[in-house]
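Hypothesis: this fold can be encoded by more than one sequence.
Test: take the structure tokens below, design a sequence, compare later.
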């Protein structure tokens, strides 16, 4: 299993000083998602990946960048309440 805090990581059958690529199972664990969700995201080309010899590979740095792009800005409590009250679906109380 991929351990980002470990300086030496096993990736597939190879032992590298710093893992650059993960297989699908390792990438799913890194992203904290189900393997089936990762496969769906790759088929929709939502997550960066490579395919070599029929195997999916994921660059750790690209996955980290992809995660950061999904970051939501933090808003203060007053703005959050205002957002919630002005963006309610019609017909709800």
């Amino acid at each position: 299993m991929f351990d980002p805090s470990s300086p030496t990581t096993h990736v597939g059958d190879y032992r590298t000083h710093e893992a650059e690529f993960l297989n699908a199972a390792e990438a799913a664990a890194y992203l904290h998602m189900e393997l089936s969700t990762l496969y769906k995201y790759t088929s929709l080309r939502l997550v960066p990946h490579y395919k070599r010899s029929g195997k999916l590979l994921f660059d750790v740095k690209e996955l980290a960048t992809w995660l950061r792009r999904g970051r939501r800005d933090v808003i203060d409590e007053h703005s959050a309440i205002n957002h919630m009250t002005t963006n309610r679906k019609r017909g709800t109380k």
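The radius of gyration is 19 Å. Strands lie at 9-11, 14-16, 21-22, 50-52, 55-59.
Hypothesis status: open.
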